[in-house]
Records
---
Amino acid sequence: MSAVALVVAAGRGERLGSSGPKAFVMCGGRPMLEWSIDALRAVPEVEHVVVALPPGIEAPAGTSGVVGGSERSHSVRAALHHTLAGDPVLVHDAARPLLTPEIVRACLAGLDADADAAIAAARVTDTIKEGDGATPASVARTLDRDRLWAVQTPQVFRRDVLERALAQPHDVLAAATDDASLVEAMGGTVRLVECPRENLKVTTLVDLHVAEALLAARRP
Ligand SMILES: Nc1ccn([C@@H]2O[C@H](COP(=O)(O)OP(=O)(O)OP(=O)(O)O)[C@@H](O)[C@H]2O)c(=O)n1
Ligand SMILES: C[C@](O)(CO)[C@H](O)COP(=O)(O)O
């Protein structure tokens, strides 16, 4: 297998409230992006790593860089177009610094012969209720938690499937919060690969504190 990894790192980090791009915020003593690059480069099946970056920022050592787009999926598409080869294609958020080589391997292995994609996800442990959309909100229904998964990255795709999923109009891509949902909309088969909840996304300041604590706990 010769997989290519696309790491999206071109977001602004508005919900974190950082002064610069979130992927370059210090996390556990280094820019957040570097943790994911290390985990990906520790897996020999990943032959090449491409990073979608904010304008004017150089790619980390051992990777190649491309300027990202206005929304996340546009950045994924820019990075995909930057690669000439590599199948399957693994997409990962720089905002998930708790990635491990084991998670990368599990997601690559999850792409079986009948699947179009395999995505990291954790089983939901909370009770989830759907609101009725009114203000004040009331409960419309309680969802069956046994069937619910909180989706993460990596998300691994057959190259031709991801190319087709991303060959859609700008506003369709802008509305997608992950790439697998574009494949689902095309009728594709997306496998769920159970991964630890620790593979969290740093969205707010609380997440950053939790990520730093988890990274510190990993130190020998
Ligand atoms: N135009 C964008 C938007 C997001 N991302 C990347 O997609 C991942 C997930 O996005 P998110 O956490 O929503 O990041 P931001 O867009 O930076 O956050 P916010 O929505 O709070 O501004 C991050 O690694 C982010 O850098 C990207 O490469 N290009
Ligand atoms: C792709 C993603 O990380 C899966 O959980 C996530 O959807 C990114 O976008 P978000 O808008 O920050 O949830």
Note: The first strand starts at residue 3 and ends at 8.
---
Amino acid sequence: MKFYSLNHPIPNTSFKEAVIAGIAPDKGLYFPESITPLPSDFFDSIEELSNHEIAFQAIRQFVSEDISDGDLKEILENTLDFDFPVVEIEENVATLELFHGPTMAFKDVGARFMANCLGYFSQNEKEEVTVLVATSGDTGGAVANGFLGVDGVNVVILYPSGKVSDIQEKQLTTLGQNIVAMEVDGTFDDCQRMVKAAFLDEEITDHRKLTSANSINVARWLPQLFYFLFAYKQAKSKGKEIVFSVPSGNFGNICAGMVAQKLGMPVQHFVASTNVNDVVPKFMQQGIYNPVPSIATISNAMDVGDPSNFVRIRHLYQDDLSTLQENLSSYAFTDDDTRAAMKEVYARTEYVMDPHGAVGYLGLKEYQKSKPNTYGIFLETAHPVKFLDVVEETLGVSPEIPAQIQKVMGKEKHSIKIKIYEDLKDYLLANN
Ligand SMILES: N[C@@H](CCOP(=O)(O)O)C(=O)O
């Protein structure tokens, strides 16, 4: 399997090269040259397969030229050692809990898979790799955890100062070793712009091998398709058409779900649910993609004004809006809507949704107004405890703090404050 750049569609890059580069030399995102559907008996008997077997069969075609079957199985065992339960909260509405991993957010799978792949590919390399990553909240902690202590890899995480939750900040600033956190005086989009500028900067790239651990990297993006297969395995017995509502920021997760659909998984429809950072809902209505600076919300991990992966989604549908609309709806919700949904669901079911999950729930309910007989699954992308203040204020309850969060809470934050791109550049040139 080769990958091509979305700016230059000639498939000439291996999985290994795409992972190590992160982004193509022409700055396009990498995309697989083909997506071959899995045999129908895979889906017929999915309930009998383990999550490891499902993941192996699903990802194998993308990586098999560079990773042997035995090594891939080992990487998947290291990556997937926690649960992904589908929890029904009302008739025809369930949530897929993606927060049972080490940093309690859905990013754990992609971050661990990529860290394992990069460690595997760097085994006999002399040159160190620097992983640059921009985070609006959850990616940073997952990448810090996944890459901690990986030989030959240094990680630099950029996050917007004051715009991530306290627990998210602890997760990405307290680990030390090969992990450095940079606190940017700006928004997530500024962080993402600085990271992309560094990739273009030959003064840096001549001296330092850079890659990305955001979902622009195929090794971070593609494993997210597992979630949808794990959910399908659990919901198949309902015998209904399945709709996924995905709280969306950088749009990597929902795009991976669409790859699972291309692999043959039966899905009736996708819903991209956003907070007021609504560039995609507007595009889906008006056909005009107009990125704008992001606005801070209580679902901060989705505060993205120019989602990196939407270009992959458009590509999957040959940039044809009406075909895309047949498979994707997109709705935006305010913080007031989000809090109201958290309250209403908690009062009725005692289920505590985090603000991102609540946005997913709202999008699903909106879609089901016209399709009430579908079986809807909204993704709970992070544990509510990561947004303790919002949950306490909104619901008046204090969720129990799990051990993996308690572990970082008492630790001291270490970050380097930066304002402009040159600050990042100086750091990368000086600390080589
Ligand atoms: N929601 C993200 C923003 C970056 O997204 P990614 O999937 O491209 O890493 C976050 O939590 O940081």
Note: The first strand starts at residue 3 and ends at 5.
